[in-house]
Write a structure and sequence with these properties.
Helices cover 17% and strands 35% of the residues. With 215 residues, it is of the alpha+beta class. The strands form 3 sheets. It has an 8-stranded antiparallel sheet, with no helix packed on it. A 3-stranded antiparallel sheet has the order 1-14-12, with no helix packed on it. A 3-stranded antiparallel sheet has the order 4-10-8, with no helix packed on it. It is elongated.
Length: 215
């Protein structure tokens, strides 16, 4: 099942795991093994939380709006150079209890992506940037504007999932992947007018983080 068409309330990524844990929970309930019943019940609730897949709708129809691709809290906003081009760098941290589905920032085509499989170190570890699992993906709008997003996983037993193909078209808010816990860095063109500040809470597929061609 393509991730952008994965519209069930529970992501298809969590079906097998939740089914296995649910079966164990029922078994321990019927056999009155209360300790194991409690443990599997807690695990089942945690899995359902991590893999929940709610519908999201943007609150704006404004042109050139950029929607957050990830749930979480904005850690920082900086200016940086990418291939000699000045860009705004927005860093967002999502926790294990945020919604894990990643969503397209606007109507776009996937320009390219790559995934580096690796470790799952805490992000305060200086080796996490070079060793942790990482995905980089670029999106291009119909107007030719391009943004880059880096997803870096942290201390999670669930791998990053990017389930799109190069040149694939996505609608604004369309699902393109999965990040259970980690840091996302969004690189925006210099002419972007930002709509957020450090400390802002954003929701994937809903929160407007800025506007292209508006600076």
């Amino acid at each position: 099942m393509s991730v952008q068409n994965d519209t069930f309330i529970l992501s298809s990524r969590g079906w097998l795991l939740s089914g296995v844990i649910g079966a164990l929970f029922l078994f321990f309930t019927m056999t009155e093994l209360h300790l194991f019943q409690f443990i599997t019940g807690a695990l089942l609730l945690a899995v359902l939380m991590i893999f929940r897949n709610p519908e999201r709708n943007t609150a704006t129809t404004e042109a050139y709006a950029i929607i957050s691709s990830v749930d979480g809290v904005v850690l920082s906003i900086e200016e940086t150079l990418v291939d000699d081009h000045k860009m705004s760098k927005v860093t967002i941290m999502n926790s294990l209890w945020d919604v894990s589905m990643l969503r397209a920032p606007f109507d776009c085509a996937v320009e390219g992506f790559k995934i580096r499989h690796g470790a799952s170190l805490p992000l305060y570890n200086p080796l996490s940037d070079t060793l942790n699992e990482k995905a980089v993906i670029s999106f291009r709008s119909s107007k030719g504007d391009e943004i880059y997003i880096e997803h870096l996983s942290e201390q999670s037993c669930f791998p990053i999932g990017i389930e799109v193909e190069k040149s694939q078209k996505l609608k604004e808010g369309g699902r393109y992947g999965f990040l259970a816990k980690g840091r996302s860095v969004i690189y925006l063109p210099e002419n972007t007018r930002l709509n957020i500040n450090a400390g802002s809470t954003v929701r994937a597929g809903e929160s407007v983080i800025g506007y292209l061609n508006a600076a």
